[in-house]
Amino acid sequence: DLYDGDAETQSLELVAISPRLEQQECDFCSGDFAAEGELLNAAPRQSARQQSAESVDNPIWQDIQTRWALLIYGETDDFYQIWLLGKPDLLVIDDWGRRIGYDQGEFVNEIPGAATTNMRIFQQSTGLDKDKSPVLRIPVGLSFEVIADATLMEEAGSSDISIIGPGYYLDVSDMYLEPGDVESIAIYIDKSRHQLTYYTDYSESPDIELGLETDEADYAMMVRATELTGEEDAFDIGLDTDTNEFILNTSYNTEPSTYEIYVLQIDDEGERVFGASDVVMEPDNTAYIPFTEFDEDAAALRVDFDYENDGEIDEMFELPDVTDEIDFYAEENAGDEQLEEDDSNIEEEDDGK
Q1: What is the CA radius of gyration of the chain?
Q2: Which of 274, 287, 195 is nearest to 241 (CA)?
Q3: 95 contacts: CB under 8 Å, gap ≥ 6
């Protein structure tokens, strides 16, 4: 009565539950938390050359060798986890053209030090999700492109992509894909800046969020483009850890665009949300949000606008404190509710035919 199936259906899987009581491994925390034998589809690491005695005291040479060891040998103590929730194929291509993930339905891994981890997710309604994409684990410090390929999908649906790094995260949720669609997300990384560029030909964007953990407080920004009027639009959302700024840039846009922007702050005193639902930006605008510099008296967070991308601040605006009116976490899920409503309307139209 508890099991229906046979060897052909492959509908039975036994999973140990005792590991849930142990300390969980953290791929994106500092240190080597996972041994090579515990990872799947790992690309081989080459043996790095030893540093010479002269190079140890030279910081420039040390930086070059560290970068070289990362690019060529995959040597690092920190890793990103890249998660996909949805049906498209997930492929990551680094800035040297090396791949990990599914390319035209075939799995590849050409990035030194990269690997996959299969996660077993049990859902109450559907049971064990056997079709879930594996979690990709790639060395921190690489810039890369994330591709969600819906070529092999049979029906339209929404997908989420999350990138978790040491002390920060990037997330693209409610990404609507029809069969044959290919969506691209570019991730640029340097010592202090983490930048996500999203390309789309739809009039609305998914919800794009990034967050940062610090000793004093935690911060997150969620951006949703509610009106993109260009034939093919893209926008950059970034985090600069040196200047403590969230950044929104429209250099790739050809027409004005409208955004909802919400910034969350969490500290020992509680949570605060600042935001607006009708921020209009022209092409080649940049908005800088110094997220640690909120004005207690004005109950607002400053936004510095650079209208010509020339490094000069042309005007300052304020994001009001909307903590009492806006639930940041509900805003994260608003796209899901809208998508379900749109799908319901489509089904009703089909029934009417």
Answers
A1: 22
A2: 195
A3: 142, 143, 144
SS (H, E, C) 221-274: EEEEEEEECCCCEEEEEEEECCCCEEEEECCCCCCCEEEEEEEEEEECCEEEEE
**C-alpha neighbours within 13 Å on the C-beta side of residue 85:** 13
Cα 70 from chain centroid?
21
- The DSSP 8-state label assigned to residue 40 in this structure reads B
Residue with tokens 């903590």: 323
* Neighbouring C-beta atoms of residue 26, cutoff 10 Å: 14
Indicate the pTM of the whole model.
0.74
How confident is the model over 238-291, as pLDDT tens digits? 999 889 999 999 888 888 888 999 999 999 989 999 999 989 999 899 999 999
Asked if 311 contacts 152 with a C-beta cutoff of 8 angstroms, the reply is: no
Q: Which two tokens stand for residue 41?
A: 């589809």
Closest to 109 measured CA to CA, from 19, 208, 41, 210: 41
Structure confidence by residue, pLDDT tens digits, 190-233: 777 888 888 776 666 788 999 999 888 999 999 988 877 656 66
Residue type, 76: T
Instruction: Give the tens place of pLDDT for each residue, 125-180.
Output: 444 454 567 889 888 877 899 999 999 999 999 999 999 988 889 999 988 899 99
Helix ranges (H only) for the chain are: 53-56, 59-68, 328-352
